Amino acid sequence: MGASTQPKACQFKLVLLGESAVGKSSLVLRFVKGQFHEYQESTIGAAFLTQTIVLDDTTVKFEIWDTAGQERYHSLAPMYYRGAQAAIIVYDITSQDTFLRATNWVKELQRQASPNIVMALAGNKSDLANKRMVEYADAQQYAEENNLLFMETSAKTAANVNDIFLAIAKKLPKSDPSANPVRSQGVDLSQANQSQSSGCCK
After folding, report:
1. CATH code, domain carrying 60
2. Per the annotation, which location comes first and is thus the protein's main one (predicted)?
3. 3-state secondary structure the chain
4. Per-residue confidence (pLDDT) for residue 75, from 0 to 100
5. N or C: which terminus of the chain carries fewer CB neighbours within 10 A?
């Protein structure tokens, strides 16, 4: 809508990673559709959605891959984060184990993902702060040490959900069309007609 008046449009691949039931799908649903379902079925493999946000004079389109958290799908994850320009690693603030798993995802991305990937750590279910097992300060310190964006979010109340995607959009290299030269792979299966513009600005 109004694309002709938009001086710049960028498209980025973003992947969500994290343990099962931390609320990855709920975060995406809240961001893309503004909805929340108390009982969300587990993702099988991965789900694909898109959402566009406007940043100053730039339209940023996110191609969002919401991956399954169950251990049996772990081996598929590289297929989804390969070529991603951004990742949100999600944990549940009421579960120390999910935070530990999140740190493992960070290490894996640091080893295997694109070297200039923008990573954000999301402590989800902030509406359950009375059951908190992961301290905000601890997660924030970990994020700072690993150069991650960090926010506590709640898909239920929508707290910080749009903000974390916005923060990622602001950090992505929108002015450099050659920032991600290997873009066409892995996009054509669902966005064939747009693969040539994926990951850079027009």
Report:
1. 3.40.50.300
2. other
3. CCHHHCCEEEEEEEEEEECCCCCHHHHHHHHHHCCCCCCCCCCCCEEEEEEEEEECCEEEEEEEEEECCCHHHHHHHHHHHCCCCEEEEEEECCCHHHHHHHHHHHHHHHHHCCCCCEEEEEEECHHHHHHCCCCHHHHHHHHHHCCCEEEECCCCCCCCHHHHHHHHHHHCCCCCCCCCCCCCCCCHHHHHHHHHHCCCEC
4. 85
5. N
Give the chain's residues under pLDDT 50.
2-3, 6, 177-198
pLDDT on residue 2? 47
DSSP structural state of residue 131 = G
Whether 104 is covered by a domain: the verdict is yes
pTM, rounded to two decimals: 0.83
Provide the domain count of the chain.
Answer: 1
CA-CA-CA-CA torsion sign (45, 112, 50, 202)? negative
The pLDDT of residue 182 is: 35
DSSP 8-state class, residue 110: H
Amino acid at 82: R
The tokens of 145 are what?
Answer: 């040490």
